[in-house]
Design a protein that fits this description.
The chain is 60% helix and 15% strand. By secondary structure, the protein is of the alpha+beta class. A three-stranded antiparallel beta sheet has the order 1-3-2. The chain is globular, with a radius of gyration of 13 Å. The protein starts with a helix and ends with a helix.
């Protein structure tokens, strides 16, 4: 992973609300891995004390940093962890 991409990832996670949102998505991903993982945006809004427009903005930032992917299922937007990027980050941090 190049340093520019890594900086984008860490910048995305530097916001407290965005980090909390990412951790909720990751927690859901781990809990339902066999079922395909993912967390519905409506569920995110209900479990965090953040308004829907703010959640949408944070999701956009996480997608831009390639930390998550989104998928439309009917009228719902499902967020999933991008495992490839997580693996790259873990490998990079393990180099120390």
């Amino acid at each position: 992973m190049d340093s520019k991409k890594m900086a984008k990832v860490f910048k995305a996670l530097s916001n407290e609300n965005r980090l909390e949102l990412y951790l909720k998505i990751a927690e859901s991903h781990e809990a339902s891995f066999e079922a395909g993982g993912g967390l519905c945006v409506a569920d995110i809004v209900s479990c965090l004390n953040i308004g829907a427009p703010t959640v949408s903005h944070h999701i956009k930032e996480l997608v831009n940093a390639e930390l998550i992917t989104t998928e439309k299922k009917g009228k719902f937007l499902i967020c999933k962890v991008n495992e490839a990027v997580v693996t790259e980050i873990c490998e990079l941090l393990a180099l120390g």
